[in-house]
Structures are given as C-alpha cells and as structure tokens.
Amino acid sequence: MTTNPEEQALAERQLCGLVNGLAQQIADHVRRRAATLGLTAPQATALRELAGPSTMRELAERMSCEPSNATFVVDKLEKQQLIERRPHPTDRRAKQLVLTPQGVELRERLLALLEAESPLAGLDDEERATLQGLLVRAVAHPAKGAPPARG
C-alpha cells in the first residue's frame, strides 16, 4: 500500500507522539515510585539496572547516560550505603559496583513498585514482546546521518 508524502508525514508524527507520550509516562511513573522510597529517578534507574556486579561504564550504558553522570548517581547511592565499589576481579584499573544487602532489599521494593500500575500494565506478555521487538528494530536502524542510539 503506497501512501502520499503528506500521509506518511502525518503517520510518522503520530507514531513519534505516541512513543514520546509513552516515554514520558514511564519517566513520570519511575519518578513517582522513586520518590516514595526517597530516591531520585536516576538513582532508581541505577538500582533497577544493577542486577549484578557492574562497572561504571556498563551501568552508564544501561542508564543511557555518560559515565560521569552515572558516577554522580553512584556517589549518592554509596553515601546511602546502597552500593559498594569493589576491586574488579580481572581489571586492576576498574571497580565493580555491587549492591549492599540494604541495596538489594531496596531494589526489590523498587522493582515491585515499578511493576505496579506500570504504563505497560495493559499489555500482556506477547504484546510486550512484540513492542520490544519493534522498538529494538527501530533503534537498530537510525536515520542516515543520525548518531547511533544509546542504551
């Protein structure tokens, strides 16, 4: 089915609006849930992404931010005794970030809060998998001249 350029532009704008709207709903959801635990949204994101030992660079990639921004967040979590920096087992120059027992407990509470009333709650497992697959494909093929997607 061929559509004219104006119809294509309208469809693209509508799709971009929906993706933006969903991203904003998710960001608002994370921010609200994080606040109930005394965390900022970036702190909650870091805790969510720390499923196991990680370097700062790995965490920054998963948080879709620069390592310096992740360092700032990790410093705050370390002050709260939720994360420890430990020597990396194979790279003497790197540190591993590891959740403390307090951090593990708070992460579990956070994950439960994030799942409750999630903007994606209306989708079943198959629909979530389909959406994820489509978004992965879209992100993997950026527009010509666009910088590669982070994340």
Any overview of this molecule?
The structure is a single chain. The chain is about 60% helix and about 5% strand. The longest helix has about 30 residues, at about 5-35. It has helices at about 5-35, 40-50, 55-65, 65-80, 100-115, 125-140; strands at about 85, 95-100. The chain has one domain (about 10-120): Orthogonal Bundle (Arc Repressor Mutant, subunit A). It is globular and about 60 Å long. The two termini are about 35 Å apart. The protein is mainly alpha-helical. Strand 1 and strand 2 form a beta hairpin. It contains six helices and two strands. The chain has a two-stranded antiparallel sheet with strand order 1-2. This is MarR family transcriptional regulator. Keywords: DNA-binding, Transcription, Transcription regulation. It comes from Streptomyces lunalinharesii. Pfam families: MarR (PF01047).
Please give the structural blueprint:
Layout: H1 5-36, H2 41-49, H3 56-63, H4 67-79, E1 83-87, E2 95-99, H5 101-115, H6 125-140
Antiparallel strand pairs: 1-2
Helix pairs in contact: 1-2, 2-3, 3-4
Key attributes of the depicted protein:
151 residues, Arc Repressor Mutant, subunit A, 2 strands, 62% helix, globular
